[in-house]
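S.,

Sequence below, as promised.
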Amino acid sequence: MSEPILQTKNLNVYYGTKRVVTDVTLDFARNRITAIIGPSGCGKSTLLRCFNRMNDLIPSATITGQVLFDGKDLYAPDVDPTEIRYQIGMVFQNPNPFPKSIYDNVAFGPKINGFRGDFPELVERSLRRAALWEEVKDRLKSSALALSGGQQQRLCIARALAVEPKVILMDEPCSSLDPIATLAVEDLMRELSQDYSIVIVTHNMQQAARVSDNTAFLMADHDRIGELIEYGESRQIFTNPKDERTEAYITGRFG
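The prediction came back faster than expected:
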């Protein structure tokens, strides 16, 4: 088995004095989809944001423990958070295309990152990877805001892919999409996992069971928020969980 691409070791996250992720130790496999599930307020999105240092943008946030990317501590003093965000891309809950053309949305990241290659080829390749090229190839100069919600989300995925990341983080990427658009994004995730490592936060148990290879279940219990209860292959988690709290959550008895 290959070395994990991401690891956390005794990771704790605080907002002020409140701990919102508690002693999480996890390995995230390469070229696999890992789902993070759990009830609202259990620290899922906070944990996800540790991987591309988005929590740095929250003044009250502090972190203890380690987050490793390819074996290197992401929070070491010599690490540039901006560079990390190119290697570990993020797709948010609500599609957030820039108020620019479809073409310029995809080209934006590589342009500010100093890309000197063939932009049209890069834009086409990224849109093809995001399964969007055939739908937009004749209107690349049109506003991205004119696309449907599902198309906008796939455009945001193309935008993330354009800077050639190793990891793609997805925070509830289908929560604002209809079932057809959701299926398209799920199919895309499975296809992308051949070349990228994906970590997805989702409230949708069916989605986690459909698309993920591995699943981590977090819980909040009194003062222990963001505690890892169980982690394993998704098939095992959803059919034969080892912890009764996992079973209660995935069967809808709480959360």
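Residues 6-250 form a domain with the Rossmann fold fold (CATH 3.40.50.300).

Coffee later?
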